[in-house]
Design brief:
GO terms for molecular function: DNA binding. The protein is mainly α and 204 residues long. Helix content is 52%, strand content 6%. The chain has 2 domains: 105 residues, Response regulator (Rossmann fold, 3-Layer(aba) Sandwich), CATH 3.40.50.2300; 64 residues, Arc Repressor Mutant, subunit A (Orthogonal Bundle), CATH 1.10.10.
């Protein structure tokens, strides 16, 4: 109810449905075709990870997952299964609204502080085996540099400033990285960067 009140107050956002559980969310997403689904993770009947996977596979909508640090495993699983980002449940309303708009426009919500803490627990600190880094060999030196900065949470504007490039050029690099690595969005790029060891938790 609280989320609906916050979102319903925005002129450019319409809440078209509310689901009681994960299965309901999958069915409603297929029927209503919303731009974005705001997904919880622990729900009856079907959890948010499986629901996210099914919605992503059906291309019914983009998914933004709500999580808390005591459910990091679920959040990471959701990202691997197609979520376009994740937020903490105590996220300020203004940040929630901004995140939904970003996901709806095709971007991914990657909070540097949350991402590093999350991936640090489950990828770089013994939480899983690293993937073969040779998958990154298709990237140019510049593209690899951009991927590192994406993994550290920099936006396109920040990337452009740091690399002394135009935002249009940065967007081109990001698009090529995603295409070459066959990734859906920046969130998957972040996960891959950590999984291959290109970036490790605690890197400056």
């Amino acid at each position: 109810m609280g989320f609906r009140m916050v979102l319903g107050a925005q002129e450019d956002i319409d809440v078209v449905g509310e689901a009681a559980d994960g299965l309901d969310a999958v069915q409603m997403a297929e029927k209503l075709r919303p731009d974005v689904v705001l997904m919880d993770v622990r729900m009856p009947v079907m959890d948010g990870v499986e629901a996210t996977k099914r919605i992503a596979e059906a291309d019914s909508a983009k998914v933004l997952v709500m999580t808390t640090f005591d459910m990091d495993e679920y959040a990471l699983s959701a990202l691997r299964n197609g979520a376009s980002g994740f937020l903490l449940k105590d996220t300020p309303p203004s940040d929630l609204v901004s995140a939904l708009r970003a996901v709806a426009s095709g971007d991914a919500v990657v909070s540097p502080s949350v991402t590093k803490r999350l991936l640090g627990r489950f990828l770089g600190d013994g939480g899983g085996e690293l993937r073969d880094a040779s998958v990154l060999d298709v990237l140019t030196e510049r593209e690899r540099e951009v991927l590192v900065l994406i993994a550290k949470g920099l936006s396109n504007t920040e990337l452009a400033r740091k690399l002394f490039l135009s935002e249009a050029t940065v967007k081109t690099h990001v698009g090529r990285i995603l295409a070459k690595l066959e990734l859906r969005d920046r969130v998957q790029a972040v996960v891959l960067a950590y999984e291959t060891g290109l970036v490790r938790p605690g890197d400056a």
